[in-house]
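can u do me a favor
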């Protein structure tokens, strides 16, 4: 099957990220104090784009787009974001999605996997290098521990798809450092800045074909809390994070409804912008930052 695809680009001079909140960058705040940017995030994909400007497989003139939108299911990612990525014709596409599907009670992992495989085949036929990502190990996440087996099956299918179609895989399940609470934000659903930085380093290592920088020992669980403190903290988490999430599921709405991609065009990444998302921030139709858009 691999012989049916065009050769992969020798270097990555353009990169487009597809996906949901993970690739949009929640909860890794974008730098700066612009009040219009308070709900904008940096994330591992922005950080990877920065890394690629200094990597031997990348380019100082790397162009980057990010079409990921929080809350998106895999079908929406494929229907809405994939066609735009094909129009942009990047050298690399990261396609990481399906997590929002897997946590739903009636998730069909086989159907998800078939949809993902079709998307990967479409990208590979266009001569695009593809980076997939597994789901996280939810063993230490009480709310999602029940779907751990489902995520494991989906991960196995992701590895098979990657092998069949010549894609790279970011093995999030195996990053043991992410099994502790340190790299997760207060909502327990999204990574902190340190978590996104860790993932970006892993992704670069995968693309460069070198040994992975992490996979060390998991962070030990935090010490037991006094009962009163635990009740107060768990009650606050349910009220501020879990209840709104469940409410959106019941109403059939998403946190990403009516949102636009944060970076819909391929834009040059400022190599000097280390520590900021692709320069001094993102750019979209609403405003400009440290990137220059190109067609």
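np, heres the sequence
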């Amino acid at each position: 099957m691999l012989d049916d695809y065009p050769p992969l680009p020798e270097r990555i001079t353009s990169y487009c990220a597809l996906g949901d909140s993970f690739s949009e960058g929640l909860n890794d705040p974008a730098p700066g104090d612009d009040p219009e940017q308070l709900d904008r995030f940096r994330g591992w994909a922005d950080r990877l784009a920065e890394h690629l400007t200094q990597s031997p497989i990348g380019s100082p003139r790397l162009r980057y787009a990010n079409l990921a939108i929080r809350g998106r299911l895999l079908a929406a990612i494929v229907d809405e974001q994939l066609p735009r990525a094909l129009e942009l014709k990047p050298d690399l596409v990261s396609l990481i999605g399906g997590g929002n599907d897997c946590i739903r009670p009636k998730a069909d992992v086989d159907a998800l996997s078939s949809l993902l495989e079709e998307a990967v085949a479409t990208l590979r036929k266009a001569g695009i290098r593809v980076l997939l990502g597994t789901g996280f190990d939810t063993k230490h996440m009480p709310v999602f521990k029940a779907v751990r087996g489902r995520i494991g099956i989906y991960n196995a299918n992701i590895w098979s798809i990657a092998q069949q179609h010549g894609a790279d895989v970011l093995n999030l399940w195996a990053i043991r450092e992410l099994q502790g609470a340190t790299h997760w934000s207060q909502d327990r659903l999204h990574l902190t800045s340190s978590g996104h930085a860790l993932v970006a380093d892993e992704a670069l290592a995968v693309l460069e074909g070198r040994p992975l920088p992490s996979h060390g020992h998991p962070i030990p669980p935090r010490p037991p809390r006094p009962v009163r403190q635990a009740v107060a903290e768990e009650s606050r988490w349910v009220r501020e994070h879990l209840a709104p999430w469940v409410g959106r599921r019941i109403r059939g709405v998403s946190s990403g409804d009516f949102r636009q991609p944060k970076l819909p065009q391929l834009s040059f990444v400022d190599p000097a912008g280390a520590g900021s998302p692709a320069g001094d921030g993102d750019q979209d139709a609403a405003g400009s930052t440290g990137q220059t858009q190109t067609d």
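The chain is about 35% helix and 10% strand. hope that helps!!
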